[in-house]
Amino acid sequence: MINIGRRQFLQTSALLAAGSVTSTQLHAAQSANAAGNLHLAPFRFDVSPPLGHPLCGGWIKPVIDYDDPLEAIGFVLLGAGDPIVICAVDWTGLLNEAHVEWRKALAEAAGTTPDRVAVQCVHQHNAPFACLEAERLVAATRDFTHIVDLAFYQKCLDAGRAAIEAALKQAVPITHIAQGEAAVEKVAGNRRIIGLNGLVVAQRGSSSRSEPLRRYPEGLIDPMLKTVAFYNGEKKVAACHYYACHPMSYYGDGRVSADFCGLARRKRQTDEPDCLHIYFNGCGGNIGAGKYNNGSPELRPVLTDRIYAGILASEAALVPEPIQSLQWTTTDILPPPDDRFDIDALVKQIEDPTQSPVSRNRPAYTVSYTSRFNKQIPITLSALHVNQTSLLHLPSESFVEYQLRAQGSAPNRFVACAAYGDGGPWYVPTKDAYPQGGYAVSVAWCDPQIDTLLSGGVAKLLETV
Q1: What is the Cα–Cα distance from 295 to 19, expressed in whole angstroms?
Q2: Going along 79-148, which residue ranges are E strands?
Q3: Residue 280 gets which letter from DSSP?
Q4: Residue 242: in which H helix or E strand, if any?
Q5: 3-state class of 85 per DSSP?
Q6: What percent of the chain has pLDDT over 70?
Q7: 237 phi and psi, to 5 degrees?
Q8: How many CA atoms lie within 13 A of 395 on its CB side?
Q9: Between the CA of residue 86 and those of 72, 83, 129, 278, what are the distances in Å?
């Protein structure tokens, strides 16, 4: 029954996406139509915050200890024009200027341009949440709580540069690509519970102790975990895994962790130490584990094993094929902020020391995005197309509908989506979700026309292949 509904949704969404328009211009990058000299340079570096560092933007308990480390993991692809860099970071988010700086730093180290760099966050919450302008806004007030330590942030950029420079010296040829997918059992569920009046009546978050909420069906999700792997002959060099779900079992205790998705990735990495394993969070803005997770520590390893099983099953379907074509495409969008936000009032709230940290820091993100829009600094969407496989790199906490639309609009391609790139817009609901209300809409900084712009941008990334 679920599969039938999903197919119907994909067909409908494909028609809607085809009718979307965007004011942005597509930039088609250099391509390798006969890929014969490709190399891949895997890299990884630690991005664990120091003791006392804020977690999740300073709204929860700061770092007191470590359950497991946070990493930035990626690769540089060589031989298809200027180098291409793709990286996943175990942070809650990189927003606006912070995301732009990451891309610039990694581009500089790889000898390429920032438009050929994709940096996506996994979105764990016991992790840093970086927006440089928001940090400056709160730091200019008194009795504030930091968002991110700037010295630590710069240290991570330096580590990224060093990791890429070292990796380039050990690049290996890649000759083949493979893709596979498998359903993940009992992890994802839609977070938004819609009542008979068509409005959101409750949210089933990353965890839920409410049995009535947990009894609701999964709702609209993408149940498939996708894997795309690159090979040197018969040797698997790198495997990229994609699944759409908020990746937290529990958080707020001050103990740094890559949580169940990061732990599953690390478990697979232990299996295959000579293959780089990378995990990307898909369009999981309205997806969480709350249907199957009550937030108890005992369920973290259970969820880890379920993601790990999905990875193994998706890899079992891998059949390498020679790389015959490769293309990198980008398009820029700049969604306007929603005019329901009173920026002057938000600045006063940020400056008010009687407000809670979340009531001061969160508005700083809103003001930062508005400032970014006024400066006309666009959000770059990008995609790597190899043979009939497309890897999409999308912004922020995009709703799962964007991922399903992308797949539906290119039914003859294997489309894998990584969201949580530039986190400036915060949540990215669909246009239809705005009048339904709910938490995600309340913290969506952009006007509903972001739907048209993002959907149109994704369509452009795919239609040129």
Answers
A1: 41
A2: 84-89, 93-94, 117-121, 129-130
A3: E
A4: strand 235-243
A5: strand
A6: 92
A7: -100, -40
A8: 32
A9: 10, 10, 20, 10
Q: Tell me how far apart the alpha carbons of residues 265 and 88 are, in angstroms, rounded to a whole number.
A: 12
Q: Which residue has the tokens 């478990």?
A: 267
Tens digits of per-residue pLDDT, 295-304?
999 999 999 9
Q: Whole-model pTM?
A: 0.93
- The pLDDT of residue 140: 96
Which of 133, 131, 124 is CA-nearest to residue 92? 124
Residue type, 455: S
Structure tokens at 302: 């259970």
- Alpha helix ranges (H) inside 128-218: 132-139, 150-168, 211-215
> The tokens 């895994």 sit on which residue?
241
pLDDT 10s digits, 26-76: 444 444 444 569 999 999 999 999 999 999 999 999 999 999 999 999 999
Distances (CA, A) of 100 to 57, 107, 212, 421: 18, 11, 43, 10
CA distance 130 to 134: 8
The DSSP bridge partners found for residue 422 are 94
- Mean pLDDT of all residues belonging to the chain: 93
